[in-house]
Amino acid sequence: MGKQAWARYGMNKARGMAQKQARFDEGEADGRAAALAAEAGADRDALQRAATGAAWREAEAATAAARGEAERLAALVTPQRRSRTLPWLTLASALLLALAAWLAASAAVAGVAALGGVGALLVAIHGLRQPMRLPQVSREQRDDILQQAQAAAREAGLKAAWVAGWEQGWAAGWKERD
Question: Is 106 within a domain?
Fold first, then answer.
């Protein structure tokens, strides 16, 4: 199974690289054509920012979406850190109740405070010893989120490849004009 997985990975990697190269070449041709079609005396930096600004923002948004999906997947499969403040607050309460029992003027107040202190101490110990549990998610849910993250990452890569190609074609077009 390991060899098959590596072969599938290699085929997917090659297909992805071919797709990115095709988008890069497409963007390069579009950028070169835009540079050659620009009016004489035009501000090339302003034209470039106007043409690529929205595309870069789209690529960044797609990257953020991919990161969000990956974080969502990671949250499903990694244990979440529980807040450790509640057991410590309970422990502090137990100590305060023990102090109240020691300083109490009446036996009834001392008994209630001692009983409360022992209960709070047991709750604190129980809270500190609780294991962290993973949320129950199905394999289908994880696979679905993984596919969404991969699709978002692929889309971000393709958008970024097009914009990078456009900028390179733009620069080549202006060199050709000059």
Answer: no
- The C-alpha atoms of residue 14 and residue 69 are separated, in whole angstroms, by 24
What is the distance between the terminal CA atoms of the chain, rounded to a whole angstrom? Answer: 57
Number of domains in the chain: 1
Residue 122 forms part of a structural domain: no
- How many angstroms separate the CA atoms of 29 and 32, rounded? 5
Single pTM value for the model: 0.58
Which DSSP state fits 40?
Answer: T
Maximum distance among all Cα pairs of the chain, rounded to whole angstroms: 98
**Who contacts 119 (Cβ-Cβ below 8 Å, separation ≥6)?**
94
Q: How far is Cα 84 from Cα 88, in angstroms, rounded to an integer?
A: 7
The residue segments making up the domain with residue 27 are 2-81+132-177
**Ordered mean pLDDT values, 10 residues apiece, the chain (178 residues):** 79 87 92 86 82 84 83 69 60 68 69 70 66 66 81 85 90 85
CA dihedral 157, 159, 163, 166 (to 10 degrees): 110
CB atoms within 10 A of CB 158: 20
Q: Is 100 a domain residue?
A: no
- Other CB atoms within a 10 A radius of the CB of residue 83 amount to 9
Q: Is residue 110 part of a domain?
A: no
